[in-house]
Design goal:
The protein is α+β, with helices and mostly antiparallel strands and 204 residues long. The chain has one domain. Helices cover 25% and strands 31% of the residues. The protein is globular, with a radius of gyration of 17 Å. The two termini are 15 Å apart.
């Protein structure tokens, strides 16, 4: 992560909050709307954005799962879980923070080839900390059987795809008071995936 990438990330999120691109959905939940811009080459490479939310509190993860649509959540034996397991081999912190299935939840949003910007929603509970990682999942290798490699497949083991880190954040929003929304935020972009290019319009 470069210092420039970190500064851009923080400024972007402040703009998102100030422009009202967060939504309070219940007394304990809000949704942060994150916009990721990818280049034409990246759109050809990646099929989905994958969000991995982790917390030491299993109850937090359970409530996030209940907030998501069932079809969004990655199945236990699917491509996302298999690819995530591959990432854990070299990322010890990720391995620790996803050590049990009840302390994390992975879900995905399809990248639209016709649009360079993809919006993804991150459900967040007020006054509680979690870690969110955002990955870009590589498209299916044409030489691999489509049925076995589908994101929703229950086949085990599923084929592993490259999954590149886009961003990581720790975010603790306070319960809103009137029109004021305060939050503690640590956010950094990798600077290498979906953002480090010149041909995509807009900014993250």
């Amino acid at each position: 992560m470069t210092a420039i990438a970190l500064v851009v990330a923080v400024v972007f999120f402040v703009l998102v909050v100030r422009q009202g691109l967060t939504r309070v959905v219940s007394p304990e939940f809000m949704e942060a709307h994150v916009f990721i811009t990818c280049s034409s080459a990246e759109l050809a490479k990646y099929s989905h954005l994958v969000v991995v939310i982790s917390s030491d509190d299993p109850n937090y993860v359970k409530k996030v799962e209940q907030h998501l649509k069932p079809e969004q959540i990655a199945p236990p034996n699917g491509v996302i879980e298999s690819s995530l397991s591959q990432k854990k081999k070299t990322d010890l912190l990720l391995r620790d923070q996803t050590r049990r299935r009840d302390v994390y939840v992975p879900y995905s949003q399809e990248v639209k080839p016709q649009s360079q910007t993809t919006e993804i929603q991150i459900p967040t509970m007020f006054n509680q900390q979690h870690v969110t990682r955002l990955y870009a999942l590589a498209r299916l290798d044409p030489g691999i059987n489509n049925e076995v490699s589908a994101l929703g497949s229950a086949v085990s083991p599923a084929a592993v795809r490259d999954m590149d880190l886009v961003a990581q954040m720790r975010f603790v929003p306070e319960s809103p008071t009137g029109t004021v929304q305060k939050a503690s935020l640590e956010l950094g972009f990798s600077g290498n995936v979906c953002g480090n290019h010149d041909d995509a319009a807009g900014s993250r």
